[in-house]
């Protein structure tokens, strides 16, 4: 598509007034080549001159007890460097038409001294105070240089002035705040009208969005506060809208192109299985199961997210779904993130299948375990079993992705602890089930397996509307009745001797304990305690004559497995460990969890670790151990993170995480706090999701807009799944131009 407008916008920036080849080169270095690129170089922030004060008014505000920030536009009148004892500082006196005020710096003195020139105009913002001599004063204020013309409201800049990031590449060719503003102003005045719309008319109308041209003009040089806000809204909306379009396409594509299987409960296999369970399913488990059964029966392939806090009993639900697949003559796969977890699943499930066979003689269900670290001969035997469908339930790790693995008749895929895998990995496993290499968008695909992804870390609403928006969702929101909440406490390192005494005492009443350390080997830099050296130290001191095991990340998996097995069978009372026990492992009598250097762990990791205990009927204890100095810090800061500098923030965040653990047992609450602390980028596989990064919208705060954008996008794809209507042309054009990378999983390419 190359309309006349398009060609104009693609003109190199060089041809804009006062740019030229040299400056064009410096623009190129920061990714701005064309006039269009420049038009989409948005301000980092704006100065609203309608809310600035004169110095006289500001003084009056201060005298009347005003304590907030304010902005004054004024000229540099005078500056001086001074010494006060051994301390140096510098002062700039500013003047406007109503009076004077001063700004003071104690740091960066040389820099600031050279920065301010007499008669230059600045917008100065900050919290004012009264100086010793009773004048209005700012200490280390924010300031923006503005030109004379701008300060008087010329240059068509209106009352709200944009400020752009000014990378060093631009500075190198003498582009400063004003000149950049002038260059962009000239681009906007002359070329913004050439910009073509990228959204459907109906979407614009229904959501009261400004047209793209208007939004671009107003994001740079807004006519009013309202028009700026509505421009910002449009860019967030548009960004989220296209994200949701991708999600809707992905979902549609999966449902349409691949016709799934229709799996029903056929025999009494399931009812027999329920008979061998030592407990009744919870209401939540039953509800989720009926949702899953409905999906499995439908010929549309299931693509479902199953959420449930640690210990809520997801495995049983998954297993029943697998049995339904097996009952229909299909294979079912369960994929786990670690070998040790896969191994435990295989053991438990095999045990249950043996028990099932005692009362259900019609079919012996065969379980096969496939791991990367297996001996070659064993692995080959397993691969053969899988290929010949001698194995009904196949459990494994990433090894299941390998080229060599060939399923005969895969009907159901379950991904456990799915946040450990990316969306791309999920897609790869699904494509295995279809017998096709690579992508999902091959039309010849015959039957797609049903898919359930399970997550113990509840996924906040904003993310389930975006990154996980192509999945249907089920939640197990109830714990088995037998379970008591874990008691969580925070202790300083100096209390360790008492903690050891506590866990030794508890051995008499049948308790087993985990002692967890963050890393395997001592790293001088981080002063982390190494599990190995602590094992030696502890077994020679506090834990002398106690049965203690050690498990760590460097062990081969079968050794880990053996240790876990010994622990399960009470050959150890205490297991010293690194985070390898993090996910899924189930030891009923392990009811104490001591976590050393707890401040080093992420919040969801801590919650997962705590989820390892409290599975039996005894009261369980989680003891978070941290540096003594963090204890008092932690008590001061409960929820506030806004105030701190990045340097302070890390330790405050740690204390907020620890407090959250003490206060909350509910995984949903925990994950909400985690999302606030970390931002969405790092969690839940957003990065590996295959979706474009967000520039304008914020997954944490823009919930409303996400929800509207999602509705609009899904509505459009419902009505026009291939985006072939004339109305959809803008969307289609932008999609193919900007998002082709994200098409891997969709049909429009
Ligand atoms: P998670 O959801 O964290 O994967 P699991 O599936 O491992 O939890 O279940 C934790 C424990 O709870 C297991 O020992 C399991 O047998 C048991 N369990 C599951 N469902 C119930 C239930 N309805 N009543 C009692 N115990 C249950
Ligand atoms: Mg689990």
**What's the helix count?**
27
SS-derived structural category: alpha/beta
Gyration radius over CA: 32 Å
The molecules bound to the chains, other than polymers, are: adenosine-5'-diphosphate, magnesium ion
Low-confidence stretches: 435-445, 524-528, 637-644, 682-686, 745-749
Apparent shape: globular
Mean pLDDT: 83
DSSP E strands, number: 24
Estimated share of beta-strand residues: 15-25%
The share of residues in helices is 40-55%
**Major β-sheet strand ordering:** 6-7-4-3-2-5-8
Major sheet summary line: 7 strands, mixed
* N-end to C-end Cα span: 15 Å
Describe the structure using short key phrases.
24 strands; seven-stranded mixed beta sheet; binds magnesium ion; 749 residues; disordered C terminus; alpha/beta; binds adenosine-5'-diphosphate
Give an account of the 3D structure.
By secondary structure, the protein is α/β, with parallel strands linked by helices. It has 27 helices and 24 strands. The strands form 5 sheets. The protein has a 7-stranded mixed β-sheet with strand order 6-7-4-3-2-5-8. The longest helix is centred in the N-terminal third of the chain and has 33 residues, at 225-257. The model is unreliable at 435-445, 524-528, 637-644, 682-686 and 745-749 (pLDDT under 50). The site of adenosine-5'-diphosphate (ADP) has 17 residues, from helix 14.
Draw up the topology in text.
Blueprint: H1 4-9, H2 20-29, H3 35-39, E1 45-48, H4 55-63, E2 70-84, E3 87-96, E4 99-105, H5 109-115, E5 121-126, E6 129-130, E7 136-139, E8 142-146, H6 148-151, E9 160-163, H7 168-171, H8 177-191, H9 201-206, H10 212-220, H11 225-257, E10 259-260, H12 269-276, H13 283-297, E11 303-308, H14 314-327, E12 331-335, H15 339-359, E13 367-370, H16 376-387, E14 393-396, E15 410-415, H17 423-433, E16 447-448, E17 450-455, H18 461-465, E18 472-476, E19 487-492, H19 496-507, E20 512-516, H20 531-540, E21 548-551, H21 557-568, E22 574-577, E23 590-595, H22 603-610, E24 621-626, H23 628-636, H24 646-663, H25 667-678, H26 703-719, H27 729-738
Parallel strand pairs: 4-7, 10-16, 11-17, 11-18, 12-14, 12-15, 13-14, 15-17, 19-24, 20-22, 20-23, 21-22, 23-24
Antiparallel strand pairs: 1-9, 2-3, 2-5, 3-4, 5-8, 6-7
Bound molecules: adenosine-5'-diphosphate (ADP) and magnesium ion.
Residues 279, 281-282, 285, 308, 310-316, 456, 480, 482, 586, 615 line the site of adenosine-5'-diphosphate.
